[in-house]
Amino acid sequence: MNKLIQDLLERRELLRLLISQVETELKTCPNGHLHLRTSHNYTQFYKTFEHEGIIERTYLGSSQKELVEKLARKEYLERLIKEMKIEIADIERFLAKDTLLRSNNVFSNFREEKRNLIEPLLLDDETYARRWQNQPYDPYLEYPEALVYPTKRGELVRSKSEAMMADVYFELNIPYKYECPIILSNGEVLHDDFTVLHVTERKEYYHEHLGLLDDPRYLIKNMKKLDLYRRNGIYVGKNLILTHEIRESPFNVNVFRRNTMEMFGIHP
Questions:
Q1: What's the pTM value of the predicted model, to 2 decimals?
Q2: Distance CA 57, CA 45 (A)
Q3: Helix axes 253-263, 160-171, angle to 10 degrees
């Protein structure tokens, strides 16, 4: 549903842009309209023009091909702009505030006591994100002594870069889980750095940060991990966010913030 809404919003903006362009072009079109008369498989072109209630018709010969083409294009543009305006009106009726999320809001409009008794079929974005965030999971328990860097959400992570990433997600109101387990098809369990939720898409993304690429052993270990991800349908371009840094090129939080905002459709 949310993908449909986003597609409709983008379609509306495209139509609005095209209408503006067509209206500008129509101002340059010649007066009158194109009329066709076909006889014995031969088509003649005429320009029709209304003047003081009288329809005047002028024959357009072969030497006036350019005018014929302009009048044909004018008719196309006039029909196109009419249909585009109708389509925009249809989209806006669908997206009207009183109908847009009525079905999604049914559950959230119940009293809490009743919500606790119901398993909903549709959820509004806020409720969906909260339920996703509150799902319990078993965190990564090895090397707890490395959890020393605080985040704005009040948890501890293993590096300064991870703390900056967590704070970006938190500040942008993007739900995330730190070191959440991923169960692979063979039953093996991996823990990514972050699992994040694209709320409007209702889609999970896995985020791995490669922070020690200068270390050959670290690099080999994580290349094997990424290979396991790929075998299980997790890869860049689909559902994997991959960031990295080396000593000569440290993590740039401003670039990360900008890329994250673009990916999640967040405007400044």
A1: 0.65
A2: 10
A3: 40
